[in-house]
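[stage:ingest] chain + small molecule (iron/sulfur cluster)
[stage:ingest] validated
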Amino acid sequence: MSPISASADKRRVPESRKGMLKITEIFYSLQGEARDAGHPTVFIRLTGCPLRCVYCDSEYAFHGGDWMHIDQIMEKVVSYPTRFVCVTGGEPLAQKRCLELLDRLSEKGLQVSLETSGALDISQVDKRVSRVVDLKTPDSGEHERNLWSNLEVLRPHDQVKFVICSRRDYDWAVKQLGRLDCGFDVDVLFSPVWGQQDATELAEWVLHDGLAVRVQLQLHKILWGDVPGK
Ligand code: SF4
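[stage:predict] done
[stage:export] tokens:
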């Protein structure tokens, strides 16, 4: 692949990078979160994120990565013995060609989920994809980036996730539940920040308040700890 010259117009995609995405890693593990937790899954981690959440566990995906053609990505994905695929980041939608990747994966008959920060428009994502949309809480440091119009385009197989850092975040998240009036029961996940918010305490709050949400632990971290590629 030829490098981009320093004088090149950065807004223009060089001919050599058409159909390519910047990829931090593609790996095979158990899905640790959301509805598909526990299923063997191929993860495609796209490079780059415009947010800087204080608890981010994927900072290594902010920079670097390798350009891969979507054909190469597809070849690698289908080499693993599972039909579950999770496109994650970083913020995968920060790369426009992520939409094409999601189309191609869905076309292949794979069960595709997308983990997104909730700060970018999700409306153009293939209808077959299950979108897991974060709503950033105050203690994430990024709650002003929430794109609230995303709630208007949710579909029944999407999920909304609150990553909870503190009691303040929990109280804020409870208040936002009233905004999830989409005409169907959207699956809502409350996820404690690993090593920061006590999971048992969060579970007690949810039980006490009788919330129609699911408390989720990050299965991969319980099994392997907080390491990349798992
Ligand atoms: S949106 Fe996700 S990848 Fe980006 S900074 Fe926040 S936690 Fe990290």
